[in-house]
Give the backbone structure.
Amino acid sequence: MKTPHLLYANEHGEVMDHPDLLAVGRTASYITDVPDEEWIPLPSGASLTWLPGTRAIGANETTGEFEAVGSEAYAVGALLPQGFTRLLLPGYVKRPNDDTTLPLFGYTAVGWQDGEIYVAAHPTDEPGPWDPSLIEERDVESAVQSMLAAHPENRLFEHLSSCALSYGCMTAKNTFVGGIEGALPVSSSCNAGCVGCISEQPDDAPFPSPQTRLNFRPSVDDIVEVMLSHVSRNPQAIVSFGQGCEGEPTTRFVDIVRSIRQFREKTQDGFVNINTNAGLTHGIKAIVDAGLDLMRVSTISAIDCHYNAYYRPRGYTLENVAESLSYAAEVGVYTSINYLVFPGVTDREEEVEAMVEFLRTNHVRLVQMRNLNIDAEYYLSKIPPARGDLLGMRSVIDIFKSEVPGLTVGSYSHVPA
Ligand code: SF4
């Protein structure tokens, strides 16, 4: 396809296409052309946003030179739904003397061509089950009302009702409408301090956390009631500990073990999953032994200095994470990583080599490509400078598939085939 034209916004956030400049992208802090084959139509469920504090950059249609658009023009980016991996950031630079730090979103390069919006993205997984436009809000509201009426004492259902109705969390909505994966947030504390944590940010952070962290300890009885309710409507459903609105679930591993045991005394239906940083290895081992089916480990790198700079782990190391993964795989748990990816960092040679080794050594079955939601300048200022050659995000996916036997690359948790 022909290179689309640049989209930019004025100071009111009104988006328009540029008559002469073509759309470009960005990788880490470098402006770059977008290979024509990397443009795809804007997917259903995606949205556009303008980027305050930025200047939009485009390419001169004749010379190919990169040019900043007039001083009143701001960059525009797309926010992608599950199922799509961002290949490049939008083309922009930060305005001098403007210390705006962008909120925690996954900004993606966009362009305009023949009346259509295009994005620099890769369709990595079947988007259907996670397309927010497929669930009617009124259906969620009525499902929430009937569930709360049926379980008036259950504080976990009550907490999840606000996640579903105010945050629009898909996993919380699923818990009420009976979608594939239901939510089981249980912990208000964490053994890490991620730079881009979505449930808790330090007071001096330049952006708020998009969600408020759980502030109570759901009881084992409430947890088991939510688990049973979810799989009773779909025996192939997944119930997941470790949600965006909580800390690290394994800080409550004793209660998770009790919940899984009580749940399995009542049914063999469904799959029990945990989304975790897997740093608390003895907790992970106890949960695995209690009957865990799936485990998704969140990570950003297999290189210690990068991992430590982003996760700021308290009392654990990447070695503990690896030990948790291998133990779970040995016991037959379907393991995956929730790989926080960022163009210009993830696709560095050294990152890819280290991650291929990590996936092989720890027998990981699935990589879930997760676009890292963060301001580029802020993230790059917090991690060690990247070194090796840039391979491109598209190549990262191909290398994982070719270099790690039996590995699946997707975007969300799947039950084992
Ligand atoms: S592991 Fe999760 S809850 Fe803990 S700091 Fe990181 S993102 Fe936040």
